[in-house]
Design brief:
alpha/beta, eight-stranded mixed sheet, four-stranded antiparallel sheet, 49% helix, 15% strand
């Protein structure tokens, strides 16, 4: 027992500080790579491919960094430099990826391949620098105090852990094994980085502000290490002075101040960067010089990016507001009514006793389809995974003009959740299932375009039930259309009723073909009777819609259906 006059031992020891530092820097490094993976997915598509390549390159680069670290001396100085370099390289790398994809009108041979390869360079840079960290930290905690277990104090039951491990392994005192302890702390930091990024940083802050927060955290870790060492609290191998580290400390302070200011104004920074990027990306889909894009708002939910913008297309009569969910165009002023009339009013006209129809609406978070269904006094079960978007659209003036507070409809039952989970958990059958879902623009959409999902839909249809969905044109996206046909056929649907809506987009009095829809069936073949439709659009354009003819669902040889467990990436529009 210590005497009253004996000095009290500090809770924050040198070993604990440096192992804690290891957790923080590992947190930042893995989170940088997750940010890069998501940026690459946004720009190049293919979530699985991008994350897999990022992880592989990162691990490879960690190994290169660990090998090169053998050439480094003065671990205190080099660790400080490494953390300052990482605090700069992490956010700059994200900016580099954005810049590579922000010049849509610049064309040269092999542009896609060159930019794709170059966009992976930040992964390697951060990986190599992160590879320096463990050897340097190992040098700084080697032969210090007790083991990591001692450093943890009473935070865990040491005897119990040793006894359990002793059942399977030969155990010994872990004193002096600093490398295993640094690695353990590193792995803990990596776990925290992946979890906090996925559950907190990305959904709440978005990519741009997240990478700035990580840079700030990295810079603060560097400055904390410098302060710890220079104040003599570190059991250092050398005794650095402020003069030796002056240039690095100045950079660290400048970086910290800069990131702090940017994070404090994160919303403005995010709007500026994302608005410029989204404007360029959207304009890239049109012929050069044929469109002007003005991004007006950008929001991120846990499941998708919501972009509102105004576009002026040379072939359209005037400017219009549009909505994108992730990279998929969801609706625009000029065709919002025709789209929802095609999705709801046309199929509802197939039923004589419309109020008796039980409807399942998958998606439809803007409540516009619900507003159309309300006109028929039908019972509606709505399932949408994005509760934030459902709340987002309730009181936004842009959506209010179209949904007329349809979320208050007394025959509407909205479930926030995954449609898969909902369908597996209910025995209810429906006369009409409407799919108002985002386009197949990324791996995230694969389940909604899978054989398994359509099989579940088929299993929840009544004897008179059908499924209705908008579809990509077979002329514009032939590979997707073939994969979609084979997927739907494999799920049990053998016939379809194709139809399209029409719009006079340029105001010249001539109507052009708009959104295309399929009514899918495995038995019943009801025909629309537009006299039973209640929407103004259908009444005004009844002679331009149809003819409505059921057809056998074509299938294609050599093209596999898209499955959750065996994906066909042709189902993703624009996948490369």
């Amino acid at each position: 027992m210590d005497s009253p006059d004996s000095p009290r031992r500090s809770t924050v020891t040198d070993r604990r500080f440096k192992l804690g530092l290891t957790v923080v820097v590992a947190f930042c490094s893995i989170a940088y790579e997750l940010v890069y993976s998501q940026f690459l997915t946004v720009f190049y598509g293919g979530t699985v491919v991008r994350y897999s390549i990022t992880i592989g390159l990162y691990m490879f680069s960690l190994g290169i960094g660990a090998l090169l670290s053998g050439q480094l001396d003065d671990p205190e100085s080099n660790l400080l430099r490494t953390e300052v370099y990482l605090s700069v390289a992490g956010p700059v790398g994200a900016g580099f990826i954005i810049a590579l994809n922000s010049f849509p009108n610049v064309a040269f041979p092999g542009k896609y391949t060159v930019t794709l390869v170059a966009a992976h360079l930040p992964i390697i840079v951060v990986g190599v620098l992160s590879g320096f960290e463990i050897p340097l930290l190992d040098s700084l905690v080697e032969d210090r105090e007790g083991s990591l277990f001692s450093a943890m104090g009473s935070l865990y039951p040491r005897r119990v852990v040793r006894r359990v491990m002793g059942l399977f392994f030969s155990v010994s005192d872990s004193e002096g094994r600093s490398l295993s302890e640094v690695l353990g702390a590193d792995y803990i930091g990596s776990l925290l980085g992946t979890v906090v990024y996925a559950l907190v940083l990305y959904p709440r802050l978005g990519l741009v502000v997240t990478v700035l927060v990580l840079g700030l955290l990295n810079a603060l870790a560097a400055l904390a290490f410098a302060a710890w060492t220079l104040t003599g609290r570190s059991e250092t191998l050398s005794r650095p002075t402020v003069g030796n580290w002056r240039a690095v400390l100045v950079v660290g302070l400048l970086v910290t101040g800069t990131y702090g200011g940017l994070v404090a104004n994160g919303d403005a920074v995010d709007r500026t960067v994302t608005g410029a990027y989204m404007g360029d990306r959207i304009a890239d889909e049109y012929r050069p010089g044929s469109v002007e894009i003005d991004v007006q708002s950008y929001d991120t939910t846990a499941y998708q990016r919501v972009t509102m913008y105004e576009r002026r297309v040379s072939t359209h009569a005037g400017p219009e507001q549009c909505l994108r969910l992730d990279s998929a165009l969801q609706l625009c002023d000029s065709w919002v009514d025709s789209y929802h009339s095609g999705l709801v009013d046309v199929p509802m006209s197939m039923y004589d006793d419309q109020s008796s129809v039980d409807v399942l609406l998958v998606g439809g978070g803007d409540y516009i389809a619900v507003n159309h269904l309300r006109d028929y006094n039908v019972s509606v079960d709505q399932v949408d995974i994005d509760g934030e978007f459902l709340e987002y659209t309730k009181n936004r003036s842009y959506f209010e003009q179209f949904h007329d507070d349809a979320y208050e409809y007394d025959r509407l039952n909205t479930t926030v959740g995954d449609a898969y989970t909902y369908l597996r958990g209910t025995d209810k059958e429906y006369d009409l299932i409407l799919l108002d879902v985002p386009g197949a623009r990324s791996d995230d959409a694969l389940p909604l375009y899978s054989q398994e999902f359509y099989t579940l839909l088929d299993q929840h249809l009544t004897d008179r039930g059908v499924v209705v969905s908008w579809v990509y044109s077979e002329y514009t996206y032939p590979q997707h259309n073939k994969a979609y046909h084979n997927t739907v056929a494999a799920a049990g649907f053998d016939r379809h009723l194709p139809y399209s809506v029409v719009e006079d987009l340029d105001g010249d009095g001539e109507y052009e073909r708009g959104e295309q829809f399929y009514v899918l069936s495995d038995g019943p073949t009801p025909r629309p009777d537009l006299e039973h439709a209640r929407g103004a659009y259908v009444r005004n354009n009844a002679d331009r819609l149809g003819p409505f003819e059921w057809q056998r669902l074509a299938t294609y040889r050599g093209i596999k259906p898209n499955s959750v467990f065996d994906p066909n990436y042709d189902i993703i529009v624009g996948y490369t």
